[in-house]
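# nightly structure sweep
# worker-07 picked up a monomer target from the shared queue
# config: single-sequence mode, recycle default, output format = structure tokens
# input follows
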Amino acid sequence: MFNRILFIAGALVILGTFLGCETQKTSLPDGVVARLNGQDITVEEFRMFCGGMIPDNPDGKKNKLSGMIDRRLASEVARKEGMLNDPEVVSEVLKERNSRLAEMMRAKVDDETKLDESEVPEPEIEAGTVVELYQIINKDMDMVEKARAEVLSGKKFEEVAFQYSTGISAKGGGFLGEVFLPGSVYPFGVKAIINKLAPGEVSPVVKEDMGYAIFMVKSKKETAEVLEQMREKLREEALKAKKEKALADLLARLLKENKVEYNEKFFAGKDPFGWVVRVNGQELTVNPESLESTDPFHQPHQAVGEKQLRYTANRVVSEILLGQEAMKRNLHITPEFLMDSRLAEEDVLAGTYIRRKFWSDKPPTEEELKGFYEKHRSEFTRPARVKLSRILVFTPGEADRLLAELKGGADFASLAAKYSKDKSAEVGGDVGFVYEGNTLEPIGSVVFKMKPGDISGALKTKYGFEIVKVTESRPGGIVPMEEMMDKLTRKVILDGRTTRVSAFYKKLRDAADLQVNSELMKDLKD
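# output follows
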């Protein structure tokens, strides 16, 4: 949830303080990770805050607990200031609680849905062997013989495939996937050769319809093992489908038993801020703030079609109906929900308080922007970059032939479109800009010494042989302030928010009575 993001900065700031707390001896009971202003934070509550999974590493646990402490302190302030009487906050709390109830209802449907083995379809597969298969294929037998010799000498099969193979598998290092030999398209003699290969063994050169080939088997499985794997996958798919149907059946029944009305004017665009749906007389409306905002970090609302609007409305209705059904089944009085409900309330209270108190941003002045820019100049640098086009082929002979044509005046884009094995062939070999220090070698060592219009020789990479052309060059260095005013403005605003929020948290922590069960935190894990 977005509100939890608000506590990351504070959690990082508190880390040093938290480490200090951990050195103190505490007398907290087992099952209590911390006590804050007289209130216990239990292991179960902490685990729920962590999304059901407590981090294994010490720093991760400390950061999570620090974030939880910050959130609780901020929510206490919000509660004391009467924020729970604010209709917007109350509505948001109810929405969060209902969302959690709906999720619990979905989980209950899942738990109640059982699968009988008779509902699992039997895999359709013959007796035989499944192999994880690699191939190098080329019309030139000498090339394949050379490739086999290089593999036998110790080179990785994938690297040799990039260099010599011309098949569709070449871009994947010769990988063909898991192949069921009895059902494969290979001739009987080729199947027999593959079947005799031990994992890691390379076949002799064999004649294929598309040329000459060698094969390598990475792993082998007999049908019995494969059958059980397929059964388990089919079992998982059948159970998932049954759970989805059970949920769909429940929602269909709830829609039939409850009164749901849709505002057709809203979906037609004639009443954009009116009610959207009524569920048992309760109107659900669109908050105008969700469509328009002065927050510079807010993503502008984009018009969506009626289909998307109805989908969203249906999702909201489903959440409400599932939440109501959960209450009928008394899930709202379970210890799990009561604990989760408290966390949801803290989340909304603290998040709303922080947003209202510390996100009232004024546009930064020119002096503030200049000062921030000068202080953080190193953050506004970019490396040198060049715009490239490339031709990728798999053999040195192909590369030499294309280089000769280029030297004779052939058009680079035309050759790339016709011969390159890279997807960029669709756009004449254009791959866009690449940055110094972040470019595949040996290309990176070459292209930044070239000028626009220069064409390289054949460069051997893990993909094959590449010929590259520099079409544009831009130097690196500090980006001028006027070129990044939007980014700079956002950084200044975010920096101001972080500073204000961190100071607020520090003030709360300084006044708080905090004990941490350091021994329990040390050993705590899922």
